[in-house]
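Moderator note: this is an archived Q&A kept for reference. The question asked for a predicted structure of one protein chain; the sequence and the answer are reproduced below.
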Amino acid sequence: MPALLPSLALTLLCLLQAVAEVPLQPNFNAEKFAGMWRVTAVASNCPVFLKMKDDMKSSTATISITSEGDLAMTLVWLLMGKCQKFEVLFQHSKEAGHYLAQEQKELHVMETDYSHYAILHEVQRGGQEPSTGLQLLTRDQNVSPQLLQKFKELIPSMGLAEEMLAVLPASDQCMAEGSWVSLPA
């Protein structure tokens, strides 16, 4: 048993490092990434998300790039019976596709084809424990079974479990701009 402890510790260290390394979309093009997306699936260990995930529906994410190269994201969710808008400004980092917000949020564009889907990884620091999330964005509300399977296969590699996944049903409830209530992100 004592001989197993060093190898177990080394294995755990390797697993932690593997989860910490988040791949980025090669040759990321922020201008092609900008526009409207639908959030069609989310996996997260955030306690608030886990409590609400079974009641959530698809939302919209509108992404624009500022003249400084930062990423402005507007999310509109149907929460507690109301369309609620969250706005976040992510500052660009030295790596294309990697953004930071208020030293508490980190966003990675892991993969995108720009016209059909994108997979985002987000880390939220602050509070008691950092939370991690993956988001599958699509340009329309339909997600193919193959794309959903690809997304599901990424979940454990990011330190998340499949029971943390919510495949969000399609919804057009919050598409009208005047129906939003703005909240701080």
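Archived answer notes: Confidence is low (pLDDT under 50) at residues 1-19, 178-185.
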